[in-house]
Design goal:
By secondary structure, the chain is α/β, with parallel strands linked by helices. Helices cover about 40% and strands about 15% of the residues. A hairpin with a 2-residue loop joins strand 7 and strand 8.
């Protein structure tokens, strides 16, 4: 019955996404993608949002990211925890989720959360996936192996697993899920949102193919298999997991099924339903953004130096 429901859900929305994936991948991509409307950004974003780049050692090119530095960063010597937010959509661009910086700044200003650094990375040509056969296509590895160490070396961060959180929406939720189970030594608090677990299931059950022209290797490179592998680890570290989605999002039923799957695997987590919200990160933050941000703060507060 559960398997049948998976296929019905995938047929209704997951495959629609897959059919459009090739078009999304073929859009122009650059590893450095600042906000085009600089005047809008200046007026609408917190003044402490900065665009920066670093040189990728593996690719030999500059890689862009946005960073939100909390008020007081420039005048203090304090070290801060970091939340990495992985954007949705394909291909990658560090400007895609940048509007969320305003929600973070407002939450800090009103005391909902404590001062925290937020980083908005670029997900690569096929967002948050490693594509070895694609030139400069290692979206996951560049993030995990290069950007995270760069942030710790460049800014005043705690530099510890307990001081790092990972979240993302849609494609970024998929990326968050895969990365948190593959690299749990890097992040303690994790919060995938609006994730396309239907396409991830399709990849699992179709020899790595998301659609006829897009395949992810090695086999097992999907959220479902990686969760199972994580659950089987005798030495698995604790993860503070929040799965979240809007009740009117086309991925909502997939998220409920994935939550049930995690429960069956014995992976503890919370599930946050956001009433009447469709497939939108900012819409989700409008309603429950404070709860998502507080999820990370609970972990930070327990491990604050």
């Amino acid at each position: 019955m559960v398997r049948t429901l998976f296929y019905l859900l995938i047929a209704s929305s997951g495959l629609v996404f897959a059919q459009n994936a090739k078009k999304a991948v073929e859009q122009p991509f650059s590893w450095v993608s600042p906000m085009q409307n600089a005047e809008w950004a200046k007026k609408s974003l917190p003044a402490t949002v900065k665009h920066a780049t670093f040189k990728s050692g593996s690719m030999g090119v500059e890689v862009g990211y946005y960073i939100y530095l909390p008020p007081g960063y420039e005048t203090s010597q304090e070290k801060y925890p970091v939340v990495y937010h992985l954007h949705g959509g394909r291909p990658g661009a560090e400007n895609k989720a940048l509007r969320l910086a305003s929600y973070v700044d407002a939450a800090i200003q009103k005391g909902t959360i404590k001062p925290t650094i937020y980083v908005f990375p670029n997900g690569g040509p096929v967002s948050w996936y490693d594509m070895p056969e694609t030139k400069q296509g290692m979206g996951e590895s560049v993030f995990v192996k290069e950007l995270v160490p760069h942030i710790d070396a460049t800014y005043r961060t705690w530099g510890t697993r307990e001081g790092r959180a990972l979240e993302g929406y849609s494609q970024g939720g998929r990326g968050t899920t895969r990365i948190m189970f593959k690299h749990p030594e890097l992040f303690f608090s994790v919060a995938p949102g609006g994730s396309g677990y239907g396409p991830e299931k399709h990849i699992q059950e179709n020899n790595g193919y998301e659609n006829d022209s897009l395949r992810f290797l090695p086999l097992g490179y999907n959220a479902w298999d990686l969760a199972k592998a994580f659950a089987a680890r005798q030495d698995r570290p604790a993860l503070n997991i929040l799965v979240w989605d809007g009740t009117k999002c086309f991925n909502y039923e997939h998220n409920k099924l994935f939550s049930a799957y995690l429960k069956d695997l014995g992976i503890a987590h919370e599930f946050l339903s956001i009433p009447e919200v469709t497939h939108t990160a900012t819409g989700s933050y409008d309603v429950k953004g404070d709860d998502i941000m507080r999820h990370h703060q609970k972990t930070f507060d327990k491990h604050r130096p």
